Amino acid sequence: MKNSLRCSAAFSLVELTLALGIAAFCLIAVLGLVPVAALTNRNATSQTAATNIIASVIADMRATTSSTSPQYNITFGTAKTLYFDGAGQFTTSLGANSRYRVRVTFPSSPLGLSYADVNATWPAPVDPVTTTPSGTVEIFAAFDRN
Fold first, then answer.
1. Structural domain count of the chain
2. Which pLDDT does position 5 carry in this prediction?
């Protein structure tokens, strides 16, 4: 009868050490993914902002009734480079706060149609012709100018 009372349910030191080792291994694996998640989040945020900027540029070009767009002063048929900061404010020259470079070009098209190739890259100081940028978004838009 005394032996049955001495046997109690508990964890041994070996079991506790194994459990702590497994927990530490899992925690290290999860903490190793934090930088990857932060980078993915930053890239997704930049891509969304660039897409919104391109949508704004195309909307401005679609709203144009003359040959030059009212907001961004884009003349149809003439390539133009714009620079945007993180808040979406634009300039025509590279500044200290410039985050996105938007290049608008006009490929040749049949009569009556205008096409625009709008390409946003970031960071803005990186010239995509000579260096690969961190990210890029490109949209090809058609405009009926009749």
1. 1
2. 55
Determine the structural domain holding residue 139 and report its residue range: 32-144
The single residue listed with the structure tokens 């404010």 is: 89
* Nearest one of 140, 143, 144, 83 to 117, comparing CA atoms: 140
- The answer to whether 53 and 120 have CB atoms below 8 angstroms apart is yes
For the chain, where are the alpha helices, taking DSSP H only? 2-6, 13-62
Name the DSSP letter for residue 39. H
Chunked into runs of 10 residues, the chain (146 residues) has average pLDDT values of 61 90 94 92 93 95 87 92 92 92 88 86 92 93 77
Displacement of CA 103 from its chain's centroid (Å): 16
Q: Determine, yes or no, domain membership for 89.
A: yes
Domain membership flag for residue 82: yes
| Count of residues making up the chain | 146
